[in-house]
Amino acid sequence: MDIEQQILEYFQHFHTHPEVSWKEVETTKKLAAIMTELGIQHHTFPDVTGLIAEIGEGPEVVAVRADIDALWQEVEGKLQANHSCGHDANMAMVLGALLHLKDETLTKRIRFIFQPAEERGNGSLSMIERGAIDGVSHLYGVHLRPIEELPFGQVTPALHHGSGIFLRGKIMGVDAHGARPHQGKNAIDVIAAIHQFVKSIYFSPFESYSAKLTHIETGGDSLNIIPGSAKFSMDVRSQSNELMAELQRKIGEGLTAIANLHDVDISFEWTDYTPAAEVSEVAMQIADAAIRETLGDEATAPPVHTTGADDFHFYTIKKPQLHAAMIGIGADLAPGLHHPDMNFNHGALAIGARVLAHTLKTT
């Protein structure tokens, strides 16, 4: 079987066997089985999912990371794990790079990091804690890009992701009878005020940012009760880590003011922080040269700035001397990442594998 066909088979397996964050048990077993079949040195962990493999010899270590988790979402009316994030493709491309390189004579070690829980925003931290980037000088990531960012056949040497974080909050007011609203403190009124508030936050239009409610839970089956309590969540994003800090400060001040206005208690916490990209110029230039040598100048796209977030960038936050960049693969991906019906041109998998292999070999 040729490499392109093997990449497609890997993709099809992971696509049809999705597992959500921290529960990628069978995915890890499959990765281990692949490594054993290929005769590749690898190890897993007793307390978390994920796998690290390594080929080559020498004191220098370069690495590539693939995220392995799926999302939990409704697909055709059924809640299920679903690889609408494209991590099935990322695994297939990184495995393809391994197939291209495993029989090469290498003067350095190449480490393959298969990381859990990217969608939770902290899976990379588990790998860092377990030595994934110990001794690593250069680290690369890879990800399919939506069609509005890159068409099929185009590849960028760097993705400048923004920062992302979730807020989970609770409103504690007072229930009331539907006929006597003055006796209660209506949590839905508070939710409406929060919604309007986050839509009225303004910073410079020259840097992208957003804050929006993504979950509301209030009320019960008795429709004549005005609910006093509610739970809510926000998705908050910005193009820089500095602006993210400002957004968090302003949202926190706003929630305090709304609580005072409506005479209720609002508690909240920030969770699953993902930092904005800190792209290494050195790594980006190596990837750029590899794309040009593999595909030609006409297929080499400039760096892409995207509002999406990725916990890949914790690797450089935790190890600033690391030269890191995430390569973006054009795939005519539509309707979009995280859409339950996301689809893409599968020809992008072979392209991504070739670019990754050349990037790792020439680093």
UniProtKB/TrEMBL annotation:
Domain named Peptidase M20 dimerisation: residues: 170-253
Protein name: Amidohydrolase
UniProt organism field: Planococcus notacanthi
UniProt-listed InterPro entries: Amidohydrolase (IPR017439), Bact_exopeptidase_dim_dom (IPR036264), Peptidase_M20 (IPR002933), Peptidase_M20_dimer (IPR011650)
Lineage, opening ranks: Bacteria, Bacillati, Bacillota, Bacilli, Bacillales
Gene3D superfamilies: 3.30.70.360, Zn peptidases
